[in-house]
Backbone:
């Protein structure tokens, strides 16, 4: 999961150092539109649905990964 | 084709004339198209007018006339009939759904809102009025169907509203003031219809269009939504930005209104996708080839790049915030006209927009036909015309301050070359973010100044990875720990909407430079 996210961040936004506590907006400079795009790509790749309420509450890499893992566990 | 004549368009001065005009011409044409779960729903002009009439009738039955009625909702089609139906005998006040409850409550009270249309998603904002018998709250999710069950006879509805005063205060559009206090621009139906006509006289609008911006934005709603309806076309609605790319392909629109953040994000996404698929070099080569062929008037852009976004997309209007002009050329290479424009809430909002055959990447466009723009001695842009607001709600002092000899003082500096306008800077302190949101730095500065370790501060635009964000510059005579600074800023961020959050800060070694009246010389510290 982290590998997919790492590849997306590198390919789309040129960001390589994906520290767990890094904040997508503050540390990587993603706009809210960029972040929604990332969410859309993750939805497609993992075949999941991420609610607006949910993704608005996700700020850091760790939070996103934890959310995705929980989602994946639920759908299995 | 510099300075070519304005286009002809039908003239409506109010929403009655507009609705009657399009209904008489094309009653069965699709007015609105959107997705509800997986199904595509079409709303004809007949049904739209019926629902506008139902809303009008509902308010009349409730004896609600001459009131200010708020709407706080995510994007949904019901917003449009509610907005239009309310505006005939009341005032519709679109409110930002991103507000925090405390500010929302203050806004409702300060602006005398007596009824609020809300939804399940904005329920948390109106819950505070549960026991307030002065404010009626209506849940769109629960009650809209019932409101519109009783369909009016369209001719009867038109008969009832035909004498509507075009100059009546009909829309209360909120805007951030320079002092940080929210101001309400009072707009008439003449103001709004003049803006729509202005846009249509500058460029040809073909159907369908796609609307994606938040509906409470004057720019998102007037040019973004009502323009297409004024023209009798089909407007497709994207309810959530998440579905924007899908809708862009599926609805295949000719026109879409955007803000710089989306324009830039969308373009960068094209390249990111190409890179992901290993086709970025090919795309670069194709653009070079296409640019070369264009010199010989051979245009392969639609064929070569039409599928990157959609084949029909010709115009993107860009407003709400300053646009990096490089994107105009970048989109043009792909065969899309990115029409940079300029406007203000007080002007309903459109003042000017670039024209298809007369584009200048550095200009914010040609002043619309009925608008008179001139430059004051100090360089400030002044605007007069049927689009200029009636004044600020309950704020005659601010109204007086902002008007001079019948002209509205925009607070922006610029110059004109014939009818083309160039903006060079802002006179006011207002910060306009890339997503079009306006922030008065004073609001955040007041919160920072309230911290006991802050002696002086400024909030400016800083950059994180090339994105413009709010940054605090702070001077302190104590030596607060980094943890304390972060914690206090986090607390401030928790008390404001997301777009107003301070994402970067810098501690200053010395006091700020000031003028003779001890005001901080803000422009010395601006980073952009």
Residues:
């Amino acid at each position: 999961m982290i590998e997919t996210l790492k590849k997306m961040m590198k390919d789309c936004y040129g960001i390589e150092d994906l520290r767990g506590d890094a904040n997508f907006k503050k540390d990587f400079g993603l706009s809210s539109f960029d972040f929604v795009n990332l969410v859309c790509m993750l939805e497609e790749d993992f075949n999941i649905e991420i609610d607006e309420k949910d993704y608005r509450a996700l700020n850091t890499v760790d939070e996103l990964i934890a959310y995705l893992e929980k989602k994946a566990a639920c759908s299995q | 084709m510099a300075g070519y004549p304005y286009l002809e368009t039908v003239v409506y001065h109010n929403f009655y004339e507009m609705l009657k005009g399009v209904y008489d011409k094309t009653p069965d044409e699709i007015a609105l198209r959107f997705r509800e779960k997986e199904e595509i729903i079409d709303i004809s002009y007949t049904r739209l007018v019926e629902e506008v009439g139902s809303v009008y009738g509902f308010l009349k039955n409730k004896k609600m006339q001459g009131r200010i009625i708020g709407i706080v909702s995510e994007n949904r089609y019901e917003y449009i009939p509610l907005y239009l139906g309310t505006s005939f005998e009341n005032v519709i006040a679109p409110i930002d759904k991103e507000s925090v409850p405390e500010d929302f409550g203050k806004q409702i009270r300060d602006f005398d809102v007596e009824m609020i249309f809300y939804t399940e998603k904005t329920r948390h904002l109106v819950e505070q009025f549960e026991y307030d018998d002065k404010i009626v709250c209506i849940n769109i999710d629960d009650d809209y169907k019932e409101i519109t069950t009783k369909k009016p006879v369209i001719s009867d509805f038109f008969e009832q509203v035909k004498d509507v005063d075009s100059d009546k205060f009909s829309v209360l559009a909120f805007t951030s003031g320079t002092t940080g206090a929210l101001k309400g621009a009072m707009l008439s139906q003449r103001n709004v219809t003049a803006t729509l006509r202005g846009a249509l006289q500058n460029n040809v609008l073909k159907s369908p269009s796609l609307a994606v911006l938040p509906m409470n934005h004057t720019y998102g709603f007037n040019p973004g939504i009502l323009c297409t309806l004024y023209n009798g076309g089909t407007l497709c609605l994207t309810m959530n930005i998440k579905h924007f790319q899908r809708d862009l392909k599926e609805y295949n629109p000719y026109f879409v209104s955007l803000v710089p953040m989306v324009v830039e994000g969308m373009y960068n996404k094209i390249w990111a996708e190409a890179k992901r698929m290993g086709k970025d070099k090919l795309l670069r080569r194709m653009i070079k080839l296409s640019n070369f062929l264009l010199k010989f008037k051979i245009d392969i852009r639609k064929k070569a790049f039409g599928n990157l976004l959609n084949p029909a997309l010709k115009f993107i209007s860009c407003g709400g915030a300053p646009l990096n002009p490089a994107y105009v050329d970048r989109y043009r290479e792909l065969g899309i006209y990115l029409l940079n424009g300029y406007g203000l809430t007080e002007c309903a909002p459109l003042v000017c927009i670039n024209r298809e055959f007369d584009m200048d990447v550095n200009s914010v466009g040609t002043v619309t036909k009925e608008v008179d723009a001139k430059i004051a001695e100090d360089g400030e842009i002044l605007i007069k015309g049927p689009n200029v607001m009636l004044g600020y709600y309950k704020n005659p002092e601010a109204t007086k301050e902002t008007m001079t000899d019948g002209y509205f003082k925009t607070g922006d500096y610029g110059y004109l070359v014939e009818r083309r306008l160039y903006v060079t800077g802002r006179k006011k302190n207002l910060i306009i973010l890339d997503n079009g949101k306006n922030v008065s730095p004073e609001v955040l500065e007041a919160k920072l100044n309230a911290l006991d370790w802050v002696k002086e501060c400024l909030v400016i635009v800083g950059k994180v990875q090339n994105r413009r964000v709010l940054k605090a510059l702070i001077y302190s005579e104590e030596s607060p720990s980094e943890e304390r600074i972060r914690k206090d800023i986090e607390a401030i961020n928790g008390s404001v909407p997301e777009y107003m959050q301070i994402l970067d800060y810098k501690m200053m070694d010395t006091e700020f430079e000031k003028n003779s009246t001890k005001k901080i010389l803000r422009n010395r510290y601006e980073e952009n």
